[in-house]
Specification:
With 337 residues, this protein is of the alpha+beta class. It has a four-stranded antiparallel beta sheet. A two-stranded antiparallel ribbon has the order 1-2. A hairpin with a 2-residue loop joins strand 7 and strand 8.
Amino acid sequence: MPTNQNTRWKVKKLIVAAMLALALPVAHALDDPQVAEFVSEMNSEHGFDTEWLNGLFADAEAKQKILDAISRPAERTKPWHEYREIFITPKRISAGVAFWREHEKLLDRVERQTGVPARMIVAILGVETYYGRITGGYRVIDALSTLAFLYPPRAKFFRSELEQFLLLTRESAVDPLAATGSYAGAMGAPQFIPSSFRAYAVDANDDGRIDLWTDWEDVTASVANYFREHGWKAGEPIAVTATVEGFDGEPGKNTLKLTDTVKSLQQRGFSFTTSLGDTARTMPIVLEGSTGPEHWVGFNNFYVITRYNRSAMYALAVFQLGEAVAAKFHTEASVAP
């Protein structure tokens, strides 16, 4: 029977899932030629001791829960109106205000130094880890080893991240068996994957180490540095709602590329308000709202947020949480005795 592209993809996913299920009856499941090859590469390319690496992987454990979690991230399984409800809640907004009050001087200083607004730093931490409360309970070595060697769809990416993690542990004196994070190996309050940790995390207080788990100076400065290094433009808008005539974009099918300008989108039937000039770069965003498609226009700073997580829903949730926390924070400050 002929199959369309979606059906073929579903069949492929089922085959991969079945292969993974068969691969994990053994507790460690990492005594594999791929592991031996990786150990050899780490020895020849970076000088890691082979015996030490073999011992490390003997202690690492494959986890079916990790494979289950990566197969159903919320960004892919929920429509926007349901995804939004996870993050834009009164409790998370109030917790963001409390976090901002507690670290107000620090956030003000980081904003002055980097141009990244305090509300955006707070929002990233609110979406990622509920302001540092939920940083993930998986050992990073387990998460990355499982995905590098037992998850074919993204094995190349996670094998690279495993390499970066081992380099990070050597450089920063981090115990590779003690570091914990998400099912995808993201670490600390800002949930940096190892390559981002090595590239963008900063020692903000010059104490000789970078701590993204408990040191809020390092955490906030690292989030801001990530944004700055990806092109954040201080004082510019992030996104605005739009009404649209004649646009046939499908909800959820967003390119996350700044392929348009203010003028070109307006010529395509988008009606929106912005202080930016006609040549400012933009992207159209269409998401599935509770009553129909929601249309947005994302600017450069929206694109920067998508570099943190390649999802329009994620970026919009960060933007809206930041705006809501800032509104409540400043309202309460204005009426304080």
